[in-house]
Structure formats: C-alpha cells, structure tokens
Write a structure and sequence with these properties.
By secondary structure, the chain is α/β, with parallel strands linked by helices. It folds into 2 domains: about 160 residues, Rossmann fold; about 80 residues, Alpha-Beta Plaits, CATH 3.30.70. The protein is built from 8 helices and 12 strands. A hairpin with a 3-residue loop joins strand 6 and strand 7.
C-alpha cells in the first residue's frame, strides 16, 4: 500500500530499487502515454479525462529543473491539449507523426502518396462495412473504436476490420494492429519508439530515463528504452511485454507522479580529492 507521507512512491513491480535510483539521479527524463496511463478508458474518447490531480502534478513536474517531461500518445495533439491543458512540455501525437515542442512550435509528418491511397482504401472499405460511426481519421492512420459496443459486437467488427485492413496494409506501406478498444491501420516509418529514441538522444549523459504506457502501441517505446532507461507498463505484470517494470493502474501512476514530484536528488557525494 502506498503511503503519500513516505519518502518513496508506489512499488514499481520487478524494479525494487526504482526510487533509490531516482534519488541518485540529478537529471531525469519522464515520458508518458495518455489513455490507460494518465486517464482511465471511456466509451467516448473525449470523456476520457485524466484522474484528479494529474494535470497539476504534470505541471509541477514540468517546472522542475531536474526533470524533462514528455507526453507521447496515439491521439492527435489537439485532443491531448484539450484534455490535459496546454502544458509547456513536448507533446507527441498520432504515434509520433505530430510533435509540439516546449516552445509551442508544431511539426507533422504527412503520409506518402502511396500511404494516403492505402488509407483512403481502408476508409472506403470500412464505410462499406457500415463502420463509419466508429471511425477516427488521424494524420497517418484510421482507428476503429469499439469500446461503446458489446464485447461480442466489438470482437466481431474488430476481426473483420483487422482481416481486411491487413490485406490493404501489405500493399501500401501501412501496418494494422489492435489496441485496447479497437483496431488501427497506420503508416509505417514512424512510431512511439522512434520519437522516444530522438528524445532520449537529447538528454544529458547519465539522465535517469523512464517511459510509462499501457498498450500494444507502447511496446515500440519499451523496446527502444531498454538498455537506456526503464519501461513501465500499466496493468497486469503477467502480460508479455518489453517493459521492465509495472504499475497496476492509473491510480498508481498518479501516486507515482506525486512521489516523483516530491523526490529530491541526493547523489552519492564524490570522495574528497587528495
């Protein structure tokens, strides 16, 4: 059980020395997914609000001189900013194809003509299947959201979409994958792992780096940070994953952020010279 008054945060399963390592680090980097990490899932994606206190905790972390903070999500940037507020941090959307830097400038990676044609074909096929009420178009992908449906119906249309979109993906430099609450067909060439690698490269030597996510799309990030920091998965610790550690829920992520916001670096002093 986490005690907010204690010197350490919630246990990070399989990383028993996590909080000691954080305390010994003068420079820290923390990247976080949004859905299933900062906010519980909701049938209406725009009602998936962050847990109470999380926006304020993120603001506190963004103001710390020892911590660099980033949000990395499959959502478009505009949705992240609407739900979290306009934090002065790097915000990455659409699985890495959009980026808002801390200075407010925004860059976007458009699909190639071939990829755009494939996404149009996938959209047309989904409309033929009468899925249009459940579709979300992004800069480099189309997502089919099934969370509002019954489990039986959700599984049924996910199987149809995955099978038919996978055929399209093979011919248009796209990939099809499931996520918690649907199926997505997206452009290859950029993912959460790619953008995480770029952000890690910008950190000073010796930075203690952490990436937290919950879904299949976060596995690219977990693989990328391995050997360079710690990947933490939100959810069951029995699920196959490239992550190193685990937090059980969004509530534990909130406790984690609270503990990080209170943690002060206490590096081991260097021995005196001479």
């Amino acid at each position: 059980m986490y005690d907010p008054a204690s010197a350490e945060g919630p246990e990070v399963a399989k990383v028993p020395d996590f909080w000691r390592r954080l305390r010994l680090s003068e420079k820290r980097f923390l990247a976080l997914d949004y859905d299933g990490t900062l906010a519980p899932f909701h049938p209406d994606p725009m009602q998936a609000f962050p847990l109470p206190d999380i926006p304020e905790l993120l603001k506190k972390l963004s103001e710390r001189s020892d911590t660099t903070l980033a949000i990395i999500s499959g959502r478009p940037i505009r949705e992240i900013l609407e739900l979290l507020g306009d934090l002065v941090v790097v915000v990455v959307g659409s699985h890495g194809r959009e980026m808002k830097k801390s200075d407010g400038s925004v860059t976007a990676m458009e699909p190639t003509e071939k990829q755009r044609a494939g996404l149009e074909a996938a959209l047309h096929l989904a409309i033929q299947e009468s899925f249009e009420d459940h579709l979300e178009k992004k800069i480099g992908s189309i997502a089919l959201h099934t969370r509002p449906l019954s489990p039986h119906r959700a599984g049924e249309i996910e199987n149809i979409a995955f099978a038919k979109w996978s055929v399209i993906a093979q011919h248009y430099d796209l990939e099809c994958m499931g996520f918690n609450g649907g199926v997505e067909i997206r452009c290859t060439g950029r993912n959460k792992g790619d953008v995480l690698a770029e952000l890690l490269d910008l950190q000073p030597s010796g930075t203690f780096s952490v990436y937290i996510g919950d879904d299949l799309t976060d596995e690219d990030g977990f693989r990328e940070i391995k050997g360079r920091g710690i990947g933490i998965k939100v959810g069951e610790s029995t699920t196959p994953t490239a992550a190193t550690g685990f937090l059980a829920s969004c509530e534990e992520v909130r406790d984690f952020l609270r503990a990080w916001s209170l943690s002060k670096p206490s590096p081991v002093p260097h021995p005196p010279e001479g």
